[in-house]
Amino acid sequence: MNAGRLAGFDGWRDLFIDRISRDNQRMTPQRLQIAETLYHHGHLNVDELHRRVRDIDQTVGYATVYRTLKLLERYGLVEVSHFADGTARYEVHVGGEDHHDHMICTRCGKIVEFENEAIEALQVEIAQAHGYKLTNHRMDLFGLCPSCQ
Amino acid sequence: MNAGRLAGFDGWRDLFIDRISRDNQRMTPQRLQIAETLYHHGHLNVDELHRRVRDIDQTVGYATVYRTLKLLERYGLVEVSHFADGTARYEVHVGGEDHHDHMICTRCGKIVEFENEAIEALQVEIAQAHGYKLTNHRMDLFGLCPSCQ
DNA sequence: CTAGGTGCAAACAATTTGCTGCTCA
DNA sequence: TGAGCAGCAAATTGTTTGCACCTAG
To answer: Strand D: which residues 23-82 of A lie within 7 A (CB)?
Structure first.
């Protein structure tokens, strides 16, 4: 049932492999494991990601997780978000996919993704009205999820 | 010409004094100086704020700036934003005032504030559609300001 | 082979906290 | 007077980097 999900990972991983070789860098089992783990559990911070990777490969170090995330970030294959807890959270970014934003439960921390074209259009208008050329944005909604209300 | 601006500070400072006494805490010259400096220069990070405060009172320490900002934050008198540079930036928050968001120039760092009711309304709709009770939000637009394009 | 990667530990940077003397209410 | 501050420096926490050994290509 998650064949599509796995196929999705395969495609994304192939992008990683492609970008890494064009960049004269090497693919390693650690990098692959980090990428795969992140792909299957979005919105992880480095500590959580490191723990999950370590469940599979005991030897992977913290620094390698950071360095791999930096690589993925440079290749545009992941996106970082800084929420209130002071840690950076990562999730995979699939090229042609629409940008999405986050709604975070302030009690349990659950994160829901959403996208809204009307807001995106308004953002462009606002930027133009101030003479800015919009390149990117970040929007987080905070509140209580259904089960925490 | 900035009489209105000063009057604004007076009101906000009085809120600070009021909240601080209700909280069984004390007003001190350092706290007042930190509050006043922040009021007159929004979007400062701790280092910048500390430097400006020190221009006026050489003895104020880093920790006091942090502790005062925590107080102000707890009282709802300032808002924190985490932009990409890893430091927290503070600005005063006046009670009845409408929430505003930020547009940041990715080249020179200039920050413009704006507010947009249509987007706020859409945010409420999105939250409801996911069963969330919206309490707060954050929206940052990134791009190039007119002089950096 | 060898440029580049890994893990570890040390270095950094932002923020917090313990402590001792000081001060507002 | 006494509970609560201030300043300093040491401690934490998140992230980066130097180095000696290891490995993908």
So the answer is: 26-29, 45-47, 62-63, 66-67, 70
Q: Which of residues 73-132 of B touch strand D (CB under 7 A)?
A: none
Provide the positions of strand C that have an atom within 7 A of a protein CB. 3-9, 13-18, 23-25
Q: Which residues of B touch A106 (CB under 8 A)?
A: 135-136
Q: What tokens does B24 get?
A: 């069984």
Would you say A114 and A121 are in contact if contact means Cβ atoms under 8 Å apart? no
Structure tokens at A132: 């800015």
pTM, two decimals, is 0.83
CB contact under 8 A, A132 and B123: no
In this prediction, residue A2 carries a pLDDT of: 44
Which pLDDT does position B25 carry in this prediction?
94
Q: Are strands A78-82 and A101-105 parallel, antiparallel or unpaired?
A: unpaired
> Using an 8 Å Cβ cutoff, are B81 and A138 in contact?
no
- What tens digit of pLDDT does each residue of B69-80 get? 999 999 999 999
**B95-124: pLDDT as tens digits:** 767 788 999 888 887 889 999 999 999 999
Contacts (Cβ under 8 Å, ≥6 apart) of B16 = B27, B31, B35, B72, B75, B77
Task: Give the integer Cα–Cα distance in Å for A71 and A65.
Answer: 10
Instruction: Report the mean per-residue pLDDT for chain B.
Output: 90
In chain A the domains, ranked by start, together with CATH numbers, are 3-92 (1.10.10.10), 101-143 (3.30.1490.190)
Chain A residues with CB-CB distance to B145 below 8 A: 131-132
Which regions in chain A score pLDDT beneath 70?
1-7, 96
CA–CA min distance B119, chain A (Å): 6
